[in-house]
Every structure is written in C-alpha cells, then in structure tokens.
Model the fold of this input.
Amino acid sequence: MKQSTIIWTLLMVFGGLGLISVQLSKGKGEVYVREVPVEAKSSMEDSPEQIYRWSTYKQVSAKEKENPGVSFSFSRTLGLWVSALCTLAIFSFLYGDNPVYKFTEAVFVGVSAAYAMVVSFWTEIVTNLYAKLMPGLARITFFPDMDKKVEADLLYLIPLVLSVLLLWRLAPKGNWIARWPLAFFIGATAGIRLVSYLETDFIGQLQSTVMPFIVFSADGTLLWIKSLRNTVVVVGVLSCMVYFFFSVEHEGIIKYISRLGIWFLMVTFGASFAYTVMGRIALLSARLDFLFKDWLGI
Amino acid sequence: MLKILQNLDRRWIFLLMFVAVAVPLIMGTTFPETPSAQVTAVFDAVDNLPDGSNIFMALDYDPASAGELQPMASAFTRHCALKKHNIYFMTLWPPGINMIQGSIDILNEEYPETYKGKYGTKYVNLGFRAGNEGVIKLVVEDLKKSYTTDIHGTNLDNIPLTKNLKNIQQVDLLANVSAGYPGSQEWVLYGSSPFDIPTVVGCTGVQAPIMLPYIPDQLTGMLAAIKGAAEYEQAIINHYPELAKNPKAKEGLVRMGPQLVAHVLLISLIALGNVIYFLERRQGTT
Done:
C-alpha cells in the first residue's frame, strides 16, 4: 500500500471515530421538541365532531431541555444521526470510491424517486384526476371540503385514456399503442415551447440588443459607462454570431471578428465556471454548517 | 519541490478546501456586503409595493440545492412578511413542498401577529403540481384549471385569497427561487415575458449566466447564487435594522466568509498550477 493511502486511511478512520466519540462524550446530537397543541374547527356543518385537536412538535435548542413541555425526540435524533452519517458517507468519495458511498448514493436515488412518485400520486392522480372524474366519491373519501355542486368533468377521461395507452408499453402484445400518447405529448410540448422560445428568446432578445451606442442623460451629459456597456453588448453579440457563421471562410476581417467572438465566449465560460464554483462551495459550507452546528454543537 | 508539486495527491487539495471552508464557518467570519444594482432592483420590486400586496412565490428547488437557495427563499419570505404582503406559495418540484413549509414556519414563528392562524387570508400553499412548463402556462392564464384545491385539499373557491384570483397576471409580483428545470427560465419564457408580469428570481450560480440576458427587459432583477442572497440580506437589514438581531436572517452573509477564503485558495491553486505548467514547459517535460 502506498504511503499516502495509509495516511489518508488513518485520517479518515480516526477522524470519523473522533467525531463520533466527541458526540457520545459531550451528549451532543440530541434533538429536543416542544409540544404545540393545535385546534381546528370542522368545515362540515353535519360532521359529528366540530372541533378537532392534535399536537405538533416544534424543535427547540438543547438549552431549553429542562423547561416544562420540552422533551427528548428519539425519532428526530435518529434522523439527525442518519443525516450526519449519510453526509460523511458521501464525503468519503473524496478519499476514493467505496461500498459505503455506493450504498448511500443508492439510498438517496431510491428515496428521491419514491418520494417524487408518492407526491405525484397524491397531487395528480388523486387530486387532479380522481377528484375531477368522480367528485362524489372523492368527497366521501379524501376531500370532505369539496363543493357538493361540483360535477364530473368528463374531459379528464382523455388524459386517463392517454395514460393507460402509455402504460400499454409494458403489455406483452401491442406495445406500439404507447407511441400514440407519446406522439401527442411530444407534439404538444414542441408546440408550446416553439411559440415561447420565438417570442421570448428570439424576438425578445433581438429587441433587447437594439440599443444606442452613445447614451445621453436628460440634461445632455454623456453617460459613458452606459454607452460603453451597450457597445460591449452589441459588439459581443455580433462577434459571437460571426464565430458561429460557417457559410463563409474565416479569412481576412471575418477571421479577426470571429477571434473577438472567441474572446467573448471565453469570458462567458469563465464567468459560468466561477459561478459554478461559488455554488459548489456554498453547498459544501451548508453541509459543514449542518455537521458543526446541528450535529456536533460547535 | 517541483517534483512534489507535480505528484501531489489530489486529496491534499480536498483537505485544504475543507479547512478553508470549515475554519471561517466555525469562527463565524462575515464581511460587509454592498447590494449590487441587480439585487437593489429585486429589493425595490418587493419594497416599493404597497403593504399587503399579492406576491406569488414559486419555490422550485430541493434539499440538494437548499444550501445555496434557502437563504434567498428565507430572505424573500422575511421581506414580504415585513411588508405584510399576501403570499401564494407553489412549487413545480415534488420536494419543494418541504421548502415551502420552511418559509411558512418563518411566517408563523417570526411574524405571528401578521400570519399566525391567518392561513387563507394572508398566505396560501398551493403545493406541488406535475407538468413543468404546462403548469406555468395554466396558472398564468387560468389558475383554477390547474389548481382546484390547495395542498390540504380545500377548494380554492373556499379560500379568501384565491376565491377571486383568476390567474397570476392579477398578482403584483412573481418571485421565483429555482435550482434548474423547471424553474426561473421557464417562468420567464411562459410567464413574465409574454404577459409582462413583474418578476424577480433567485437562482443557483449555474443558472445565473443563462438568466442574465433577460435583465432588465424581461426580468426585473435576479439574486445570483449565495453572493446574491447575502447582498439581499444586507439590503433588507439596511432598511429594516431590527432584522440584524436575528441570526437566521444572516444565513447568506455567514456563508460568504467561507466563500472568500475558498476563492482565495482556488485562485492560488490555479496560479500555482499555471506556474508548474510553465516550469514543466521550460524543462521540456510536457
């Protein structure tokens, strides 16, 4: 084994053990909650129960643990520890690919997909399809607040049929049927996007680029910063467009303009990279902030 | 020395970056921020509205990007709360529901006199709706075609805030916080630009260069990455000094300390990398 690998292994193992021992010895990493009673009136006049009471739990700092009404929350403490250990497991990829990282990554992907599916089921299939097609049944089951005058909207049979056709892909025979709803979705999406892109990204951007090179204020003073900015924008747009214009050979004056375009593009890529770096550091600092404050209590 | 640098294990750089971010974070190092023109435009868009105006807030992000975007969403919420605006929350991202709950908690815990127990009259949560830009097109033209109920299943016709709201062209400002697709660009493409809805956005650093060309004609202002969030927090504190006592209102400002040190480290490493490259070239090893 290489010397650097040994050093890193020791650093990771002892670092991790150190963090956990600090946690256990100092009694940090515990979550305390205060019970908050909630009371709500029933929205249904004929309901046998007119007042509903339940409790929610608000997280409080560990300093308040002796206060009345404050209690230790096992589930939230467990959540905190799982969250902290998952963060460390993902960070372990910096040392190198390993089974702990792969396991955590798989858990993350699975949980995210399952969460999105459950939310979509309750907000789309139940709220937007079932309640529209069968309002009477929806009122009895999930939506007691639904207006009794609401009637079934049979137009929603179309998305229902399209969805069933889309799932036909899984059938052993006739999976070509799934192409019809797919063709509808692609056509509709392309149509929606085409109009918006033409309006906002093409016409709108052309309008925004038509600007005066020399700008004067109301009293006739030359606004040289604004003038310079406008000039840079127009020259930048034109030179970048010339760089991507391949119908003529990039010789003579065209060569110099396209080179200028490359410079503008390089500055743009540099700005994009810098913004990305800033974003990634922000994410790292947020995770470390969580580990230091919420978990370690530093 | 050159040989050591040429064969330096990349993990030493990870360790350096960890120290560069961790030390200022633990020490709580912050630096003064001066709001830029873009951030001032966002601040003015919210602040110049009369108290109690209607703000449509679309929080299109998930926990993975919360580190960068949560300070913006919280700052938007606090600023709207200080102005006692009515807020309509929605999201195009399934995990966005939890992000909206974070903002609602701010309203209830920090501004109870205006918002606690005022669900439906001061704020409403429309929740998540699948369909990406299709949803934006619907809410811009006919809100109730897309949303018949709020997140709790209450009919929008029974909620005072949404009872007479036909579409979001009627709101005074559209504020979007976005981590990608669907997000800021889609709100501009299908909402603010074609229908001239005053719009401000807060977005990740990756999205910022894509959104810049829309300012100022198609987009009123933008908070770009954590720097934008910190400047916006500073702008709010400058106008509402009472917020300076709330450490939660300085989340973005606190994150700028690690940014500075990490950027200095990164610039030094890029310079060092170039020095090594030129030394190698002089020695003829590349």
User: Anything to note?
Assistant: Chain A touches chain B through 55 residues (CB under 8 Å). Chain A has a mean pLDDT of 87.
